[in-house]
Amino acid sequence: LSRALARFVAEPSDGPRRILEVGPGTGAVTRQIAPAMRGSDKLDLVELNDGFVRSLREQLETCPVLAPKADRIRVLHCRLEDLPRDTRYDVIVSGLPLNNFSVTEVDAILRILKDLAQEGAVLSFFEYIGIRKLKALVTGAEERVRLRGIGELLHQLLGEREIRREAVWRNVPPAWVHHVKLA
User: Fold this and answer.
1) What is the pLDDT of residues 124-145, one digit of tens each?
2) Which of 60, 100, 133, 143 can bridge 70 by disulfide, Cβ–Cβ 3.0-4.6 Å?
């Protein structure tokens, strides 16, 4: 799953890129992104959880994959909504569990990511295969409405902009990784 999410970081580019990872958590995807970074690429990690922030900062000093590039990686301890809008990103990788948020929150997250995207930027994100359908079978009406709303937002985004979708069957649970041109 981590390799698939980092796929577009490894794509060739004409110059230095700004890379954003939203919700890096323990850094599993970050450790796939870092080796794919080229000479002057820069990576911003946006994480809200205090423990994950501490772990990521420690890994920048001690992890053999991250430490050599620590001078080009920033850990930003904030909500995505609080990230300054003055930087545009060429590649955005999201580890946010979109199916866990409200429809309004998912809509806001997608709008912010579009605002942060440089022309031609690619967003990569994942969702567990069939999770909305499965949850809808065992939940109440209000939850089904929420899940349907999220599905509609993602369907609209993917229908207009998806450039690649990968099934990661060896992940537990299996997941789709969506790659979307944002701008």
Assistant:
1) 999 999 988 888 888 899 999 9
2) 60
- Edge to edge, what strands does the sheet with 175-181 contain? 73-77, 42-47, 18-22, 89-94, 117-128, 175-181, 162-168
User: Which DSSP symbol is given to 129?
Assistant: T
**Cβ-contact 164, 5 below 8 angstroms:** no
Amino acid (1-letter code) at residue 93: V
pTM higher than 0.90, yes or no? yes
Would you say 163 and 94 are in contact if contact means Cβ atoms under 8 Å apart? no
What is the rounded CA–CA span in Å between residue 178 and residue 181? Answer: 10
User: Alpha-carbon distance 50 to 55, whole Å?
Assistant: 9
Q: Report the run of H or E that residue 45 belongs to, with start and end.
A: strand 42-47
